[in-house]
């Protein structure tokens, strides 16, 4: 079976960016010159996904406008002779077939995934969290799809994290399967460093079996009073295999102001049009 659909959750409050996120979605904050959410949409498309479902919420309309067509803007760019910018906004509005569904109460990532249940239907799907921007010549989701096509079940992306960072991640208990693959023998959401069953933390890329929906429906609210996807996967595990894949690439956590700033610097330094000048600027800063 082929994975055709991807869910992108963008309904969270984004409290860590207040006041910037009081009247605009966190996912629309720019990472250099593109809103953060555009990076995961492009990754999904580059991985072969054809249908994208974005879970939004109150106050997130700018996301829909961003991926919609703007005839007025196109006309204005045409009149100004801005052919390159015109091509870019046209490309953007034709990126993918995107549907939107609203999460009416922010009850956690697991709840946001459940919100997409009827749009996903009874087929495996990808889940991407826009906070995680992952850079590699082969998109992270594409790497995962290759592994999943051999394995089936559900697959989570993991990376090695420092023990003291464990409380910021879902941590897996791994069974090495060779190479970058692991069987998942347990999952704990945000454990203390002492309780963490390994140093492999889940990052925001998943391929999920549709059985996750029933598992989430049967999962009680967990940490922070939220319905945790990690708890849903732990419930799914005895019925269906869950695997983990240690992806290739550099992950930037854009979910905090410092993380977004670091990502912007790293990505800009790698860009031909910005890198050299930025490097010179950074060198000249009095630290
Ligand atoms: P976070 O835990 O980063 O929460 O969500 P947040 O609300 O986005 O940001 P802070 O912590 O308030 O600063 C992880 C992912 O789950 C989505 C978020 O949009 C993000 O993609 N999410 C979280 C939802 O869609 N709905 C929720 O109820 C909670």
What would your notes on this structure say?
The chain is α/β, with parallel strands linked by helices. The chain has a single domain, classed as Alpha-Beta Complex (Spore Coat Polysaccharide Biosynthesis Protein SpsA, Chain A), CATH 3.90.550. The protein contains eleven helices and 13 strands. It has helices at residues 36-46, 61-67, 71-79, 83-93, 109-115, 117-120, 140-151, 211-217, 229-236, 257-269, 275-284; strands spanning 5-9, 30-31, 34-35, 51-56, 97-102, 125-128, 132-135, 154-160, 170-176, 181-189, 200-208, 242-246, 250-253. Strands 5-4-1-6-11-8-12-10-9 form a nine-stranded mixed sheet, with helices on both faces. Strands 2-3 form a two-stranded antiparallel sheet. Helix 3 packs antiparallel against helix 4 (83-93). The longest helix is centred in the last third of the chain and has 13 residues, at 257-269. The relative contact order is 0.16. The mean pLDDT is 95.
Structural class: alpha/beta
Shape: globular
CATH second-level architecture: Alpha-Beta Complex
| List of distinct ligands in this structure | uridine 5'-triphosphate
Helix content bin: 25-40%
Which stretches are low in confidence, meaning pLDDT under 50 for 5 or more residues running?
none
């Amino acid at each position: 079976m082929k994975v055709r659909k991807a869910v992108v959750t963008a309904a969270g409050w984004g409290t860590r960016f207040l006041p910037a996120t009081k009247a605009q979605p966190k996912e629309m904050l720019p990472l250099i010159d593109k809103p953060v959410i555009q990076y995961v949409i492009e990754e999904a498309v580059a991985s072969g996904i054809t249908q994208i479902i974005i879970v939004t919420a109150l106050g997130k309309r700018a996301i829909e406008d961003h991926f919609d067509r703007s005839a007025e803007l196109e006309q204005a760019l045409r009149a100004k002779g801005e052919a390159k910018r015109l091509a870019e906004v046209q490309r953007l509005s034709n990126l993918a077939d995107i549907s939107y569904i609203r999460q009416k109460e922010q009850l956690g990532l697991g709840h946001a995934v459940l919100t997409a249940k009827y749009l996903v239907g009874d087929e495996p799907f990808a889940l991407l969290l826009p906070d995680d921007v992952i850079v590699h010549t082969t998109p992270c989701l594409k790497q995962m799809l290759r592994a999943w096509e051999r394995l089936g079940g559900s697959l989570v992306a993991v990376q090695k994290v420092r023990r003291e960072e464990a409380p910021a991640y879902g941590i897996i208990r791994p069974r090495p399967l060779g190479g970058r693959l692991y069987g998942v023998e347990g999952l704990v959401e945000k454990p203390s460093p002492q309780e963490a069953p390994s140093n492999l933390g889940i990052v925001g890329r998943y391929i999920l079996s549709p059985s996750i929906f029933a598992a989430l429906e049967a999962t009680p609210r967990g940490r922070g009073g939220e319905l945790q996807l990690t708890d849903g996967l732990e419930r799914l595990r005895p019925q269906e295999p869950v695997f983990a894949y240690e992806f290739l690439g550099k992950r930037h956590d854009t979910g905090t102001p410092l993380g977004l700033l670091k990502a912007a610097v790293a990505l800009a330094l790698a860009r031909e049009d910005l890198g050299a000048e930025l490097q010179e600027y950074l060198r000249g800063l009095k630290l």
